[in-house]
Amino acid sequence: MPLAQAKRLRTEMTDAERRLWYLLRAHRFSGYKFKRQVPIGRYVLDFVCFDRKVVVEADGGQHADSSTDRSRDEWLQGQGFRILRFWNNDVLKNTQAVMEVISNALETSGAKSPSPGSLRSPPSPTRGEGTPSARRHW
């Protein structure tokens, strides 16, 4: 079930998830590799950097004070993951601050650093990524 759900979620990303994915994908963010909508156990994570065991979640209002999210976070922490949760509104309106928090978490995480060969420029835009609205940086 989580794999089918992950595939569906990849096609139904929120605006906040799309913005984060644009900034995190293809080693664009300080050379770290992120995956999106990843099934782990019975859960599907929005974004995860396995090298640093950092999970990034973009949440809407339905997640406010969620006991389900607390249980999920406890299980993931037990697996050694660090969970960062951001409100969709913060991702969209305060992207730079969100990215700074993610950067700090990656830097202070106990896992290995990205390899020097992975620290390269992002690939040339393809399939509409080069449009003015997509070129916006945080």
How would you portray this structure in words?
This protein has six helices and four strands, in the order H-H-E-E-E-H-E-H-H-H. With 138 residues, it is of the alpha+beta class. The protein has one domain (2-113): VSR Endonuclease (Endonuclease, Chain A). Strands 1-2-3-4 form a four-stranded mixed β-sheet, sandwiched between helices. The longest helix is centred in the last third of the chain and has 14 residues, at 95-108.
Summarize the structure.
With 138 residues, this protein is of the alpha+beta class.
Largest sheet: 4 strands, mixed
Shape: globular
By secondary-structure content and strand pairing, the structural class works out as alpha+beta
Please report the total strand number as a whole number.
4
Task: Tell me the CATH superfamily.
Answer: VSR Endonuclease
Discrete helix count:
6
CATH fold name, please? Endonuclease, Chain A
Q: What topology, given as strand order, has the largest sheet? A: 1-2-3-4
Task: Name its key features.
4 strands, 41% helix, alpha+beta, 138 residues
